[in-house]
Amino acid sequence: MLPPATADPISAKSFGSGVVVCAADAYADPSVEVIHGDCRDVMPLLPEGVFDACVCDPPYGLHVADWDQDVPAVEVWREVLRLLKPGAVLVAFAARRLYDVLGWRVRQAGFEVKDQAIWMYRGGRAPSLCHLLPAHDPILIARAPGKPIPINVDEARIPWLNEEDKKQASRINPLRAAGRRRPVYHESLNAYGHEAFVANDLGRYPTTVLATDDVLGSMSHIFVVPKVRNAKAHVSAKPVELMTQIVKVFVPKGGVVLDPYAGSGPVGEAARLTGRKAVLIEMTRAA
User: How confident is the model at residue 91 (pLDDT cuts 50, 70, 90)?
Assistant: First the structure.
């Protein structure tokens, strides 16, 4: 699936230092491979510029486990950048209070930070009376320098709730029945002028907000996914549906996505379900 680092196939090849690359036991589909080892040891051994995107849920640096002592260092993201094709996207989850640290380190590695998405969910309880109830995780979106790889808008569109929902979106200003703004602002601020927007039959344009269940009630323009509710799941497990939407948006059809912090492997499953390929790196054999 990947151009090999040497003349030998990547699968089942020992790279030394205890790092072994092998086909993933959990996947019947050969399009997903798991590399068992520390990504800091593994990534320098992989060939340059072969991945179409990197989607990952790295350590947050919240000290919830031995592996969560810090946000990944600049050197880690510099190695990720080396492995990506020019213009490829990096999508990385972060802790709310350390998002700035992740962004700074990603920039220092050479990425261009382009956007932020939000995963919203119902929080269980506040950590203390000094904290608000947690209800979202920020998602950093950055690009490798080079001509940007277009996102897959149509494949990731959010379906219309019904015909009325689609009809409402077709108005110039959905908040007003007449479809026109009041003449308060300059006409140039009306992006569509006096022509109505024509709704796409496939659904709404993907947004930067992804929500769990009905956390916001009926929000037709937001992609909604169920939260992981499994006591035996990875401590920071993300829903496969969530990763599937992200993979559909940012990984070209048939492309290869890298996840250097695979955990329980939702990015690999998302790739398998959407016709992509994936290389997952994980320190434990539970991925």
Answer: very high
Q: Which two tokens stand for residue 165?
A: 């929902």
Closest CA to 109 of 143, 148, 75: 75
Distance spanning both ends of the chain, measured CA to CA: 19
CB 108 within 8 A of CB 76: no
Return the pLDDT at 14. Answer: 35
pLDDT digits (tens, 9 = 90+) for 130-182: 988 888 899 999 999 999 999 999 999 988 888 888 887 776 454 444 544 44
Which residues sit opposite 34 in a β-bridge?
A: 22, 280
Instruction: With residue 274 as reference, give the H or E element that holds it.
Output: helix 266-274
Angle in degrees, 0-180, between the axes of helices 99-109 and 74-83, rounded to the nearest 10: 50
As a whole number of angstroms, the distance between CA 174 and CA 163 comes to 14
Q: At what angle do helices 266-274 and 240-250 cross, to 10 degrees?
A: 60
Domain ranges of the chain: 20-154+227-282
Query: DSSP alpha helices (H): ranges in 49-186?
Result: 74-83, 99-109, 163-169
Residue 24: band (very low, low, confident or very high) from pLDDT cuts 50, 70, 90:
very low
Q: What is the phi/psi pair of residue 162, to 5°?
A: -170, -175
- Using one digit for the tens of pLDDT, what is the confidence trace for 193-225? 445 568 899 998 998 988 875 655 555 555 666
Q: Which of 223, 172, 180 is nearest to 198 (CA)?
A: 172
Tens digits of residue pLDDT in 239-256: 899 999 999 999 999 999
CATH of 20-154+227-282, one of 3.40.50.150, 3.50.50.60, 3.40.50.300, 3.40.50.1980: 3.40.50.150
